[in-house]
Every structure is written in C-alpha cells, then in structure tokens.
Amino acid sequence: MGDYGRDIEFGYFLVPNAADPLLATARLADRLGIDLIGVQDHPYQRRYVDTWALMPMILAATERVRVFPDVANLPLRQPAVLAKTAASLDLLSGGRFELGLGAGAFWDAIEAYGGPRRTPGEARRALAEAIEVIRRIWGAERGLRFEGEHYRLAGAQPGPRPAHPIGIWLGAGGPKTLELTGRAADGWVPSSSWAPPERLPGLNAVIDEAARAAGREPADIRRVYNVNGTITDGPGGGFLNGPAEQWADELTDLAVAYGMDTFVLWAEGDQETQLRRFAEEVVPEVRARVAAERAA
Which domain of life is it from (predicted)? Predict the structure, then answer.
C-alpha cells in the first residue's frame, strides 16, 4: 500500500442546506478550478433540498466541475431508475456526472420515509445487486432480466447510454463491503471522520486483495477521501486543523504514502472563505508537491 500513481483531484462537499446559497457556492467552486462537487443524500433531513434535484441544477449552473452524490441513499433510490437518472445527467452535462453509492444508514429515518429496514448483510447484498442492475441499464443489451433478493429486472430496456464511463464509487467501511468495492466498484469513498489516516492502510489492503482476487489492478480503483477540517491562520490544532501549509503537508502525505487520490473538502467555518483558501492556497501546493515526490 502506498502511492497508486493516479492523477490527484480535488472536490468540495456541498451540504444541501435549503437556506444556503447552494448554486452560488457551486459556481464559485467551478470558477476556482475545483474538479468535483459531492452532495450527501439524506432525503429525510427536513432542512435539506433533495440531492437529486440539486445536482442537475448544479450541472446546469456550471461549466466544467463534475458532480456526484456523496453517497446516494440506495434504500430510497430504486437502482434501475437511479441508473437512468445518472446516465441522463451525464449525457445532458457532457460527461460530468459520477455515481457515489451507499448501502444505507439511519434506518429509522429511511423506514420513516417508506424505505426498507435492512440488516448489514441484507444491505450489502442489495448493494451488490444494485451495482449489477445499474451496469446492465447502462449497457446495450435489450430485454434485461435479473432476479435478485432485493431487485429484479423483467424484460427492461436500457438507455440512454452515458456520455462517458460513469464511475461507481462505494461509501464502504465494513470488510465485506470493502471486498465488494475491490471486486466490483470503480472507487471508494471514505470520510476522515470515521476512516482517519491510521486506519487507511488496513482498509485499502482489503480492497486491494479483493481486486487482485478478481483479476483487477488495485490502481484501477479511485480513492475519494472526504476530508473534514478547517484551514486556519494560526498554529495547527491537530489533523486537518491548521494553516494551508499544514494542509498541503498532510494531503501530500495522504497521496504518496496512503494512496488517496481525490480530496473532497468538508469544511468547518465560513464556507466561501474555506473553499477559496482550499482552491487557491492548498490545491496548487499539493499538486506541485505530489508531482515532485513522484519525480524523485
């Protein structure tokens, strides 16, 4: 485990608070050169706009930034329709959509919204089935049939095709969902709040072993890290809580020593200030340092 050699990218975690200037913030991220905007998907949160209404608005309001659900709430999103929506957004935006996918959490809230309550095993199996359903809907075969424990296709028709090969990135933490990531997904989306750096080697190792067992290269799997913290003017106060120089040091280390290739800022404090500082002070420095480390 170490540097997988993938291109380094940077994103912004846009919390979908209805009272916030969501589209203005998305346009700012686009102008600042941020690569990705991730939006969490919790439909039962009363203060949030719906993620699948916000994402097309972001794509329509921006020119180059890519958008993904960070991560989609599978128990409340039927996978065949999810696949159709994802392909449509990708096609309409010129290839600017990726699909983060989660097995579900907060089961009381999901059940309150009419969704199923699943055990960890059921949630994992449903996630595996959903990946298969989604890939089939994105394919060219007609009259699709699939009979699973949780999902089925009964002569379904695919289409439209996405504008580019959409990545399926799993928000996974347990060993069996990590194995599923290595075996069947295109990316992994952990958060620093529950997967701090000291846990990353062990978690990455599970993904890598499963990838190799499936005949895949570990480097084929993107590692998208939601990084929670604050860029400050004063001295450092712990991991990802300090000046831009500290952030550059820590993110560079996460790339070249821990294998993470995409960093999505989940900022605390004034969002515009944090986003600007990240894009203008941290991102170019990390790009330069990672390039120098790799050249050496």
Answer: Bacteria
